[in-house]
Amino acid sequence: MISIANISDIAKMAGVSVSTVSRVLNNHKYVSKEKRAIVQKIIADMNYTPNKNAIDLIRGETRMIGVIIPYNNNQAFDQMLHGVLNKSVERDFSITVLPTKYNKEKEIEYFSMLKNKLLDGIIITSRSNDWEEIVPFTNDGPVVSCEYTEHPEIGCSYIDRYHSYLEVFQYLKNKGHIYVAFTTARGIESMSTQQTIAAYKQVFGELQPEFFLSDCYCIEDGYRAAQKLLSLQTKPTAIYANGDEVAGGIYQYALSINLKIPDNLAIIGQENQPVGVALGLSTVDHQLIKVGEQACELIINKSRQKIKIPYKMIHRFSI
């Protein structure tokens, strides 16, 4: 392998400038066919392999985007990441996944990668730090959020979660349900959980604490949640789960105690996941793949736009 300094040697042998050699290495269109052919022949003859880090410095970008994700094996975050990957392949960018497990210090470490020019930008699927801690890093590179933020320095691709929650609760109330429970992933420190509670209160009034369970991520969590909720003295007649996998666990437990769906218990999930399709569960599709695709587009374009992605409620037999 030849050192990146030998770009100068290639330029001399080809009778062109160093910037022309750089353009050829980066497949830049503004090089004549004749010069490109000469440079490519010399590169082949010398068995030259460019040093990526040095080329990145010349080009002024890494074509690498970081995606902050709390954890994998979660359908919501996986869908957003899937959308980011779809768009990055189209635009010839690479993706680095930055898992945090909601650790604030780890999250800030990742943002320092912008300052060190290791990434061209960062997409946040979910965060643990306050925006005031994150905004200063926008001076080092673009940051895009997958939730709405008013901060003008940060672009966002987002869904109107509050109104989606409101629509679900209002629908259940209109169907005659008075006792409605719901599950969430995180506790009240989460913005989406706060929005769910606010929407619930707007429709039903005060929330009975036992009708709200957090730390629900998978089928097993849904099963355990249903065990708790359906053992209450006042049992819910409808449960809104924070994902179709959780809803699937609720469905399994309901069947195990011979409840009829939806006559004895209405169930609705989120994100139109395969398990929900297979079981015929109603769901709210927040179109998270589109959220990820749009977030990636914003980063690539260095845009600070606020793009709202529409959600849709999908009715199946379970409500």
UniProtKB/TrEMBL annotation:
Signal peptide: none
Domain HTH lacI-type intervals: 5-59
Keywords attached to this entry: DNA-binding, Transcription, Transcription regulation
Entry annotated with the keyword DNA-binding: yes
Keyword Mitochondrion: no
Gene Ontology MF: a single term: DNA binding
Pfam hit, one: LacI
SUPFAM superfamilies linked to this entry: lambda repressor-like DNA-binding domains, Periplasmic binding protein-like I
Superkingdom of source: Bacteria
Descriptive protein name: DNA-binding LacI/PurR family transcriptional regulator
